[in-house]
## 1
Amino acid sequence: MTGTERTDALDLERQVCFPLYAASNLVNRAYRPILSPLGLTYPQYLVMLVLWQDGCRSVGALGERLYLDSGTLTPMLKRLEAQGLVRRVRDNADERRVNVSLTDEGAALRERAQSVPATMFGACTNWQEDQLHDLRHAVNELIDALNRRDEAAKPEAVTRRKPQAAVPD
Amino acid sequence: MTGTERTDALDLERQVCFPLYAASNLVNRAYRPILSPLGLTYPQYLVMLVLWQDGCRSVGALGERLYLDSGTLTPMLKRLEAQGLVRRVRDNADERRVNVSLTDEGAALRERAQSVPATMFGACTNWQEDQLHDLRHAVNELIDALNRRDEAAKPEAVTRRKPQAAVPD
DNA sequence: TTGATTTATATTGCGCGCAATATATTTTCA
DNA sequence: TGAAAATATATTGCGCGCAATATAAATCAA
């Protein structure tokens, strides 16, 4: 109302993706001191979560779970291998694939990681379980929407990634 | 129930921060083809949003708005300067500061950016305004919670960044 | 079977993010 | 005033993310 011409659509406060971007950076920062004693970065921690949960997985399967491609995963997995946490072995049945599995040390690290979620959110006062639940739900719906948009954009070809649907709720 | 010992807290599906991380990556990817014709990356676009909205700002003030520090901003602002979109000038009153302002070209770019939000979310079918609103609200609450946690962690010193409260709703 | 296409991973180059550190300026206060 | 502390930005080094490209293996088609 002050007279200067302003188009609200470009106001930072109107953006939906900026809080997402900022929160992702803040989360990464918050995890760093918690994961550092385990020798892991946050993306590396996510890879370990998948392997602890699913066991041996190909590079492509890890990428589908985490929405990442080989350009990101290959160097990251090599670092985890150099640390002795995972093995990278060519698949005998299909020599194109590389199977990633846990070493004994990688599997053992799970015990030390048990306290990570509680450390992360235990210190986060004033934050209730159901709010986290709502947030997870809302973000997962955005992920679904972005994936549907990608599929709609190129209907005649397979999408670059074929991520499974975001986890329900 | 299958007998293998499993601790749910480390399941990927239980994580709150992973969808945030994945969504942030997907958003960055989705913005790329939209911003590429403008010669901007998504973080650069955010800087331009602040400058279009606030006008001339110091590096530190930009960092408070975007939750970034000089280690990220300085090289980014140099790239924007090399493109002729912004100016970086030492503050006469306080020679420690560097003020960042728009060039004519940078200010003019705003017109071409007007269509960016609609392009981003216009193609996103099945996604309602109020869902985006809820998402923004939920993520902003997490940002506030993480900031409160940081302040609580080191009460005797000023926090590394002093971000203003996340935008209300 | 062979040649073309598809699939899986690796490589290259670039732009973030950020901790740690360095440098220069300003403020504090003894 | 003058030394110490605080403040603002810059630099360094490293680990992502990802588009584009390369390479090799598997599949498909003629």
## 2
Amino acid sequence: MIPTLQTIADRVNVSRSTVSRVLNNKWKMYGISQATADKITSLAKELHYLKNEAARSLREKKTFTIGVIVRDITNPFYSQLVKFVESALYSKGYTIIICNTGYDLDRENGHINVLLSRRVDGIILSPIQKSIENIFKIKDRNVPLALFDCKIDDLEADYILVDNEAGTMEAVSYLIDQGHKKIVYIGGNPYDSNNRLRYAGYRNSLSLASISIPDHYVKHGNYSFKHGYEAATQLLRSNDVPTAFFAANNRIMLGACKGIMDCGLQIPDDISIVGFDDFETATMLPSPLTVIRQPLREMALNAVDLLLSRIEKANNIPYMTSMLKTEFVIRNSTKNLN
Amino acid sequence: MIPTLQTIADRVNVSRSTVSRVLNNKWKMYGISQATADKITSLAKELHYLKNEAARSLREKKTFTIGVIVRDITNPFYSQLVKFVESALYSKGYTIIICNTGYDLDRENGHINVLLSRRVDGIILSPIQKSIENIFKIKDRNVPLALFDCKIDDLEADYILVDNEAGTMEAVSYLIDQGHKKIVYIGGNPYDSNNRLRYAGYRNSLSLASISIPDHYVKHGNYSFKHGYEAATQLLRSNDVPTAFFAANNRIMLGACKGIMDCGLQIPDDISIVGFDDFETATMLPSPLTVIRQPLREMALNAVDLLLSRIEKANNIPYMTSMLKTEFVIRNSTKNLN
DNA sequence: AAATTTTACGCAATCGATGGCGGAACTTTA
DNA sequence: TAAAGTTCCGCCATCGATTGCGTAAAATTT
């Protein structure tokens, strides 16, 4: 039998209340004697007593649980996020429930229902652009929510973002400075806010340099290896081969690199490439990749801080957006054409 | 205010019991009229009623929660595991709590306490070799447990493993068949069961071929990029350069590859390498890596099946070990010396 | 019309922990 | 020795959902 407060109370001949007070370190303010406290403490240890969190949660209306909903846990971007978030929350006594949506709206919805049903204290969500209905379910219940890595149009909320446009401009301008004019944009889902902003940055940079963009230099699609691969190979085998690629995320970039290799070309000698997200493989290729790094650790910590301040202080503070700067990490995947 | 059963009961003028029965689809067996049932169902929908899981768990002594404790969530091996486990459990109505230990025993212990306190229905644990005390805490409470990716000496439990020794022998024998005699073992933590078995396989293969192993060809250490890198560079710069490396896991293998590249050498022309775990980057290098793949999906599903059968059927069945075969994936990272 | 059956629910205990309020027992003070 | 403090702790309601047992009211049978 698993011991409860009552088990201990019976053995020490006191009431549940007393045991509860002792085990919660409140016995002094309730004037419980040292002797009683000691007896209770040691018996609890002996019996390996562990508080039933379900009961505590029910009574206290607080679960010390945070739901973390990501699009793809196998993407290093998210698995790192989870690691940082888990670590930060663990030290504050919180536990995380992981939900993987695989970019599926219904699944996201299902997960949100579960989290609300479990009365989580807060949610970190990396939504998909169409999540707005799902998000309203959370907002209606007044559950603290941090939206991560995606801005939803016209939706007021707490956001954790990076400056996608500026980050992209820095990278594309770098290409332009190196003399590139034929720069292809291989993007993710066209409706995704990140993709739109990165695309905007790309256009801005080229526009500032008065370089026009042929339609077939823009390849929206989705954030997958496959899309990167196909877009790259198709262009490299066309009769208007670009000199550089911009990849909208790590998956696309990797796919594009593979495509380039499969076409028998070398980075950076035959073709240049830069893109979003830093990842380990980027440093492993023969020519390490120049990338735009997102400050993941800071983003994770900001998300946690934001949530905890709403949870533990007040939830009626105005919405905040944490917009961090990206870092342009120059390695060796671009060629200077000048 | 968040609606409860009572909220609905009051509005429909019935008792909590009736509402509960209707919402749990048990109203027929309790002879509740269709009319009442309909009123309740639609009101619940209108109010966006969501059952309080803490209350349900408390009463039912079942949480529909599984704890998943991994050593390093950012290792693709574990993030894939988590993905498969999450997906399988989601479809069965279970939720997972993620715990990352970072190979730290105290942290593992802390996480186990939290999970037990939350009365999870089961735990999937990828332990470290010294976890035995922690594991006993779980066993003492009779909580179903699946040990993943690590065999603890003399500990009876449910295990999900692969045939490390056979898998390694296949790979090392392959090197030997290609004429390699100077094969280095770059290993993980010396006490880790995987490492020991992989090392045993390595020794067996060489012994069968009557090839002796100089001491400095065995580099135990830990499962890190750094260790792989350092072991590789050190050997490549020594005066007894091997012709092939065997890497005990994906992190080590990547580090070794990087080390090889930094020494200005080419895979497979200058040096051959094979190793454990398949991972995306393995296919991205100029010469894709020949690896020993673990059937992660099957392992994850087996772990889930094993746990669920204990949870939902009986926990008094004998312990089982799921030992799956590895798959040798031949790519192009070894040179035929014959 | 009385007896029996069926229909349709309600009562109250339970799961385990928490905390406000109250109070008995003992000690000190006047 | 009675009044006033202290010391030390218990009673009981509460959180929300579930379920065994019981029963009033309506319907049916005899």
